[in-house]
Design brief:
single chain; 381 residues; alpha/beta; Rossmann fold; globular
Length: 381
């Protein structure tokens, strides 16, 4: 029996993980464990541990501090907890995804024990966030890589990674979206006690970790621009990065009219996908506007620098933080000609590799000297 340990830092990475870890969990010779970090257990973010499928073996954290004031203190407490988990479970393999700082727990604890690390979705670029540093650090600490685009594979090779360690698989939750039965506006209206038949936009705005001093002005312009248009607004909570409280408090203060504005802490994958599908456009700086929205043919207004460097499909409209530019972008998102254009786009992030192939590859991956002994490949400059 091969034990595989997976780290999840929040709802967003769990949604990306789910199709793959679900396949792995069904394998007879695999015992899969989920190590959940703090945001999953926090009431503020909707206690998302309740949304995680109960068929997974969940490793719950023992150190549950009630605040998010000091990331470094949280990280130290989490690391101690994770090291003890590794000692107890003795996993044969670790799987991490993306670029949240919590993902660093895994490689730090597992590398000294020669436990191989598999990293999903490295190679991307997000120049406006400290996630950029974390993502590339995890790349160098990982033994095998599954990436979302061919150019991301090239980027890992630029970082000295051997080509045989990298496989381009696309983003598999997009396949779930394509086959999903979208919930009707009537059902959503009953679930959230909100009228989904009135046109609305979907807003998700995360802290830009390299621009935290400017967060108030960024929000002020965004809110002013949205309120100029007679659309209802559905807001989903930001992630747990520093200054998330400012975003939450500002949005709740500005969007008080419960007939026009709905604020959701956590709505789950199917609800979120259905809300996105019925929206006029998605606006903010979330990666879902870059990756998922294109599959649903929904316009996405990407504000600011958080997603700078990430490949963007043709449904994405880039805007700076000025009210004038945001207003201009909203008009484009509602333009009939633009809507006709994006109905024909293909999402480059959609996967062409079957889940079974990926799961079988992970199961059969040989843990040997070749895998564990990394070689830096020099490129000619």
């Amino acid at each position: 029996m091969k034990k595989i340990l997976v780290i999840s830092a929040g709802r967003s990475d769990y949604d990306r993980y789910y199709p793959i870890i679900d396949k792995l969990n069904k394998k007879k010779n695999i015992k899969l464990y989920l190590f959940l970090t703090k945001a999953h257990f926090h009431k503020k973010f909707g206690y998302t541990v309740n949304f995680i499928n109960k068929k997974f073996n969940i490793v719950k954290k023992s150190n549950q501090r009630s605040d998010f004031k000091e990331i470094s203190e949280d990280f130290v407490a989490d690391l101690d907890d994770f090291i003890n988990t590794v000692k107890r479970l003795k996993p044969k393999m670790l799987i991490v995804l993306g670029d949240r700082y919590e993902m660093l727990l895994g490689p730090i604890a597992c590398i000294p024990k020669n436990i191989p690390v598999i990293h999903f979705y490295g190679g991307a670029v997000t120049e406006g966030a400290t996630d950029e540093l974390v993502r590339h650090a995890i790349t160098k600490m990982s033994h095998y890589h599954f990436v979302a685009l061919s150019q991301y594979k090239k980027r890992l090779m630029q970082m000295g990674e051997e080509s045989w360690r990298i496989k381009n698989i696309g983003v598999h939750n997009l396949n779930l979206i394509k086959s999903m039965r979208i919930m009707s506006k009537s059902i959503l209206s009953k679930i959230f006690n909100f009228d989904f038949f009135i046109p609305y936009c979907l807003l998700t705005f995360h802290p830009v970790t390299l621009e935290l001093a400017n967060i108030n002005s960024q929000l002020k312009n965004l809110i002013k621009a949205i309120k100029e248009h007679k659309l209802n607004v559905i807001v989903t909570y930001p992630n747990s990065d520093p200054r998330h409280n400012i975003i939450i408090n500002t949005l709740e203060k500005q969007f008080k009219n419960k007939k026009k504005f709905l604020i959701i802490k956590n709505c789950g994958f199917k609800n979120y996908t259905s809300i996105l599908k019925h929206s006029k456009f998605v606006i903010g700086n979330s990666s879902s506007g870059i990756v998922e929205a294109a599959t649903l043919k929904i316009p996405s207004i990407n504000i600011g620098t958080r997603q700078n460097g990430k490949y963007k499909p043709l449904n994405v409209i880039n805007s700076n933080y000025s009210k004038k530019e945001i207003t201009k972008s909203v008009k484009k998102a509602l333009n009939t000609n633009f809507l006709k254009k994006i109905r024909k786009i293909k999402n480059p992030y959609e996967s062409k590799v079957s889940l079974d192939k990926i799961a079988n590859f992970i199961v059969k991956l040989k843990i040997n000297d070749k895998l564990l002994r990394k070689r830096f490949v020099n490129i000619k400059l």
